[in-house]
Amino acid sequence: MSTTVLIVEDEAITAMALENKLQRMAYQIVGVVDSGEAAVAAAREHLPNLILMDINLIGDMDGIEAAGQIRRFLQVPIIYLTAYSGNEFLGRAKLTEPFGYLIKPIESKTLHATIEMALFKNEMESELAKREQWLQNLMACMDDSVFALDDQREIRFINNAAQKLIGCDREMMVGKPFEEVLLPAQDKVRRTILEAVETVYQNGAIQRFGELLPFLNHKGQVRMITLSIAPIFDLRRQIHGLVITVQDFTREHALSQRISHLDRHDPLTDLINRKGFSQYLAKAVNRAKQSRCRHILISLDLDQFRVINDTCGHHAGDELLKRFAHLLLSSAEESSVVARIGGDEFALFLPDCDLEHGERMARHLLEIIESFSFEWNEQTYRVSASMGIIRIDAATVDAAQCMALVDEACYLAKAKGRNQIYVLKAGEQEVVEFHGRMQWVQKCNQALAEDRFRLYFQSIVPLADDHDEGEHGELLLRMVDPAGNIIPPNNFIPAAETFGIMPLLDRWVLQKAFHLIEQRLARQTDSRRNSYSINLSGLSLNDFEQLRFIQSLLDQASFDPSVICFEITETAAIANLAHTIAFITSLKERGCRFSLDDFGSGFSSFTYLKAMPVDYLKIDGSFVRYMDTDPADYSIVQAIINAAQALKKKTIAEFVESDAIHRCLKECGADYGQGYFFQKPVPFE
After folding, report:
1. Nearest by Cα to 503 from 547, 533, 554
2. CB 369 within 8 A of CB 346
3. Rounded to two decimals, what is the model's pTM?
4. Angstrom distance (rounded) from CA 179 to CA 147
5. What are the helix (H) ranges across 371-454?
6. Cα torsion through 26, 31, 32, 33, rounded to 10
7. Alpha carbon 5 to chain centroid distance?
8. Does residue 481 carry a catalytic annotation?
């Protein structure tokens, strides 16, 4: 497409000559006019690519004035044509930003070169204008604040984000020294930024601030910022300004602070949580080792929380915890640290404190707690706590040991009858036993890592003569030590339960059991239904992730879920009855069955039995073992069997070790027996 040209010339001969020359050069002439008014009209109508404009025209408007009007609505290159070159014309012509100035008469080569240079210059300026507009739009949309300074340290450009950051309008900042936007009230940050600006002006090195700076703006707001300062060089590599880019991390900083607070604090009571407290405790232990100072750590466990939580509901339980937390905070010494480290477990750290003062503080707290009452739905509940106390000194190993020892001390306080204080001192028998259990935890973890656990099988035998059942038995966990010796569960299970790793062992048992059961059923030649009992710990019963894990195993299994019977102990079941019932119900819906182990060992067995959706009651072995010689045990077993029959539940008697016990159980109407009389445990591989 050829370039269009408008000729504005009042001399007809000159205009005709220009037209002929331009046509020979392949330019397209869109008009030839002789006045300023006509030039403006023709430019508006034809929108030419270039205008050749004579300065002296007929009419009231000369070429310079016409060019000025045209440039207001059309950014087109204009080349002036004149026979005069006086300063008056040149001065006025410059104001219209012409793209060339030709003195008549005009040679063809000069005309062509001037036109091409004007077109090229216009194209470059248009492209530059587009880029500048694009850059300004980009800057306007940027979240980062941008300031451009000249060589006098004055602000020449700011974007929208910078206005918001500073809290001033653009007109109040552009043309002003940059240091004026930095308030004197912020001397340290102000000095840091201005020194960095000066460094860039002096040596051209880019300055970056990685850490957040608290920046005070003109609206009194503190913004958390980072910034970078870079030089602007001219063509001679001289610094003639710089660009400051500021990133506002105020929202992210506030969110980070909130997340950090939530990560280390309990959302219900706003006390430090177990993680935050463990971190604090680790520093305190190190301080005790380095400076040989002594601290006291107290663990508190609410004695009545579970009763109130189960009786009045979770809202009441939460309210009790919040009030108890407030009570501890208001009663503890100012230097103390109070934390919630578990469901109804709290900890109190007394820095730089001896054991005598720690005991006095604990007894003072015990008195305050005894006088505290909790009211809910017009009912008043008395609250007490069990407390364990340990000393932290240079001999303390680490924070983990502290938490474990103080938990043990609190456990021993409960064992004394609750609402008690127990001070755990180094060298006591309880400490020795405690460390022994801790060693078993390490052995369990090592055995898991080295796959040194095994499953054994003990039959559960029907006592009726006309039974027609498949294989029925309980899967039992055993550990193998590095020498290959079998370690019975009583050695390691108590430690695993005390220190909370029992769910890990349960997972190993579940995975292994499902795998072996699948293999066993694949080899089965008859159609009788088998049944395999798998033990679940109390910790697994209260673990939603464990429930999902079991459901996942059931989804992947190729056998009927009814062959699986989960065994749970009576004490674990009643610890959180509502949760236990929900756990059992969700798996029974899949087809699994449940057996209540050690039945009769609890203090309120028959009170909850109607609500417990189990299939079997496993009579506690302490009643079965001597029922052939002890009438009281015989009567208890008979009563349990009668209750189970009334509730349409099957009974399994443990510890059947003789034919005499076997006969007694048949007389009482028990459904199944388990014990050495029938079979000792054998490998299930």
Report:
1. 547
2. no
3. 0.47
4. 12
5. 399-415, 429-449
6. -160
7. 67
8. no
Which residue in the block uniquely carries the two structure tokens 């610890």? 575
Place of tokens 């939580």: 309
Encoded tokens for 163: 């206005």
Catalytic option among 301, 344, 598, 620: 344
Measured between alpha carbons, how far is 665 from 670 in angstroms, rounded to an integer? 5
**78-82 and 379-382: which strand pairing?**
unpaired
SS3 (DSSP) at 506: helix
Best CA proximity match to 324, nearest among 351, 297, 348:
348
**CA dist., res. 471 & res. 457, Å (int):** 11
Place of tokens 């609402």: 419
* Calpha distance 327→316 (Å, rounded): 16
Q: Which residue has the higher pLDDT, 365 or 99?
A: 365
Nearest to 498 by CA among 403, 569, 426: 403
Contact call for residues 50 and 79 (beta carbons, < 8 A): yes
Q: Which residues contact 443 (CB under 8 A, 6 or more apart)?
A: 479, 481, 492
Are 53 and 66 in contact, with CB atoms under 8 Å apart? yes
Residues 442, 578: Cα–Cα separation, whole Å: 33
> What is the rounded distance in angstroms from the CA atom of residue 401 to the CA atom of residue 393?
12
Q: How far apart are the first and last CA of the chain?
A: 89
104 within 8 A of 14, measured Cβ to Cβ: yes
Q: Quick one: tokens of 441?
A: 């935890």
The 10s digit of each residue's pLDDT in 277-307 is: 888 899 988 888 888 788 999 999 887 777 7
pLDDT band per the 50, 70, 90 thresholds, residue 335: confident
Position 163, amino acid: Q
Give the C-alpha separation, 396 to 265, whole Å. Answer: 25
